[in-house]
Amino acid sequence: MKPFDVYPLFDIELVKAQNCWIWDKEGKKYLDFYGGHAVISIGHSHPHYVKKIEEQLEQIAFYSNSVKIRQQEELSQKLGELSGYNDYDLFLCNSGAEANENALKLSSFHNGKKKIIAFEKSFHGRTSLAVAATNDTSIQAAVNSSHDIIFVPLNDEVVLAKAMTKDVCAVIIEGIQGVAGIQTPTNEFLQSIRKKCDETGALLILDEVQSGYGRTGKFFAHQFANIRPDIITTAKGMGNGFPVAGVLIAPHIKAKHGMLGTTFGGGYLACAAAIAVLDVIEDEKLTENAAGMGNYLIEKIKKMDGVKEVRGKGLMIGVEMHFNASGLRNDLVFKHQIFTGSASNKNTVRLLPPLTITKAEADHFLQGFALALQSHLQSVSK
Ligand code: PLP
Prior knowledge:
By secondary structure, this protein is α/β, with parallel strands linked by helices. It is 36% helix and 18% strand. Residues 95-97, 100, 123-125, 174, 178-179, 207, 209-210, 235 line the site of pyridoxal-5'-phosphate.
């Protein structure tokens, strides 16, 4: 047997990682400005994270959701405090797609409706309903086509108003669109969705899978708009690499035994990892660091020749070029030893480093990026 060949791979084998740095088997050291796809929040192999998981592993690693798991209560309490959603409930699962699938299903349980509004260029994951709400037909199979989904252009209040009929079950929107290449809903647009949902009885789901956990300089990106969604989904940075995801549920949505469930979700190890992440985000003031370092990077990159636009907030940054950026990303990895992310917009490079980056690491990135950009511009002008 061999791995199913669905990923285009860099021919690099990683063997070690420490905070913002990763090493390959030849001993080459890379700066991680991709965070394994926005997953590494508190830095690779943070000592507190390693200790918490190891200690838990020695006690009890797993039991099913048929017993009381004290660590789920500790995690809920801590997440409520740090995110400002103390009065919400938490359902734990294993991935971003699963969190969104459950959020959509829960909305439908709540109001009995079926129609979902999502946005152009959205990405919500690959399970059946989550992928149907993802605006990319290339990753949808025939079996995903039976859902009732309407795609509205981001930040278009007129189209939104027309789409918001009384039969809408839920509106699902990313705090900041990630896969699309970092596209931000305006505060006014988010406020207007909130208002329309209140008027029609639809639920508002904020997908904070990529934009959550301090990355944008607030705990959740939608908090810039001062709105409170009915449901918030999280994953990626929540476990710093340990698979754990969450659905934060407003108090007016009532639980019923059996309505949601999972075997692995909320296991002891996942909780230990997620609690350790919140400890470090709080102790090391990583949300504040993300805001400061993000502003610094954005201002510097804006001044570089060859850059068309810089978008985003905190350490969720999209840099759009006037050209296809795949060659530039290859040069960054192979010539400058810096990992960055791609986007569905091929001209955009995504920067999603750990929230722990220092000014020295930001400068290291800026230097490599400027050199790679210069050599690209020189080669096209020849
Ligand atoms: N939602 C958003 C905004 C994402 O960026 C992703 C993954 O990139 C997902 C959902 C799906 O998460 P997962 O791959 O953990 O299922």
